[in-house]
Amino acid sequence: MESRPKDFAIQYDWCAGSMPPPHHYEYTIRIGPGLQGEIVFYPDYPGLGTPEWTEPFGVGEESLDALYVLVEEQVLGREWVKIEDGTVGGSLEWMSGTVDAQRFRVPSRVEEDEALEPVYAAIKALVPDAIWAKLRAQREQYERDYREGD
Fold first, then answer.
1. What range defines the domain where residue 100 resides?
2. What CATH number is associated with residue 67?
3. CB within 8 Å of 34: residues ≥ 6 apart
């Protein structure tokens, strides 16, 4: 394994399947470059009137190195085959990033999704549990407020 490039950065996006408001939600996790990360959370379909909650967090050197190893082994150099069968519903996830000034992108719904599971799990695990708990609580409050507004 090469050492992790200074410009190593990842953006992971997750979006719930199509559901009526306020049950849909989305988030983006950005890691790097360097030892910082952030999660941007939308408790509904992004757009006018939907809050955007951003929570920064630090990333440990060892955790970032481990993520880089996973990306190097499971993502870089692959030709992704996107599934084009027209399946409707369900959540979507995809990622993009930079390694040694080269951009890469993994589309949602690829045939090789089993290769991505450990990478996506590692990215989500970098967000501290306290931040996930805070965002869950805010989303639950958003849903309550939405229902009370009917």
1. 9-148
2. 3.30.1560
3. 6
Domain assignment present for 54: yes
The amino acid sitting at 55 is E
> Distance (Å, rounded) from C-alpha 147 to C-alpha 150?
6
Contacts of residue 128, defined as CB under 8 A and 6 or more positions apart, other chains included, come to: 57
Domain-embedded: residue 3: no
| Residue 4 placed within a domain | no
Count the residues in the chain.
Answer: 150
pLDDT computed for residue 23 by the predictor: 85
User: Tell me: the pLDDT tens digits for 51-66?
Assistant: 999 999 999 999 999 9
CA angle 32, 35, 38 (to 5 degrees): 60
Question: Is 13 exposed, middle or buried, given 0-12, 13-18 or 19+ CB atoms closer than 10 A?
Answer: middle
Structure token pair of residue 53: 């909650």
Average pLDDT over residues 117-123: 96
Residue whose entry in the numeric block shows the structure tokens 């399947």? 17
